[in-house]
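Why run this: before we spend reagent on co-expression, it is cheaper to look at a predicted model of the complex and decide which construct boundaries make sense. The entries below are exactly what would go into the expression plan.
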Amino acid sequence: MDIAILGGTGKEGAGLAARWAAAGHAVVIGSRDAARARAKAAELRALTGKSAVTGESNAEAARRGGVIVLALPAAGLAQTLPELAEGCRGKVVVSTVVPLSFGGGRLFTPPPAGSSAEEAQALLPEATVVAAFHHIAAHELSATEHAIECDLLLCGGDAAAKATVAELGRSMGLRAIDVGGLGNAGPLEGITAVLATINRRYKLKNSGIKITGL
Ligand SMILES: NC(=O)c1ccc[n+]([C@@H]2O[C@H](COP(=O)([O-])OP(=O)(O)OC[C@H]3O[C@@H](n4cnc5c(N)ncnc54)[C@H](OP(=O)(O)O)[C@@H]3O)[C@@H](O)[C@H]2O)c1
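The model came back. Tokens follow.
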């Protein structure tokens, strides 16, 4: 599958790219600066030994991707997504975005839409947004020599879109768990604030979530 990762120059996007490239997918790294995306793609080709990693501007990456992954900060969605609407039309858009603010007292700071995924869906009305990968730490993704110790919790309003994202998760060795409609994106994103707190308190970089009883 051709996967475009917008904001793929960052830690989370690059980690996802490394795992998907290793699994045999073609990956296009997107950036606000195409040169930066190409440099990151070259780095990932060297790291993974896979040639199907390229870099483009976010707009061109969105046009090329069959599935589009949002791996940029929550604060950038409103400015970034309207320009990418054409490239995202009719496609599955995966939101990994978590609205966390590390400066003040409250970590989880969701937008008025309730979650970053719902904000993305409102900004991209002709795409189908699935919320996923919030609990898979960049540090865990980039440690490609070992399996990821975490479940993939995902939610969205479209069963076929969720099946596509579940398959992408399975291709990197994750167990995918459907947690319902996009209205559950807020709780999913919020759990990341809990994981970030656990990481701080116990000096970790990669706490994650596993569901029991399934
Ligand atoms: N890091 C993790 O462990 C982790 C885990 C789960 C979920 N997430 C979520 O995944 C997303 C990416 O995380 P990250 O740690 O990789 O973030 P990051 O490094 O802060 O940002 C990723 C990329 O987004 C682009 N960007 C930065 N500010 C932007 C803006 N205002 N508008 C548009 N693009 C902007 C930058 O790329 P260019 O400058 O090249 O455009 C940057 O390299 C976040 O929403 C985060 O909450 C992260």
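Residues 7, 9-13, 31-33, 36, 71-76, 79-80, 96-98, 100, 134, 137-138, 192 surround NAP (CB under 6 Å). The radius of gyration is 16 Å. Bring this page to Monday's planning discussion.
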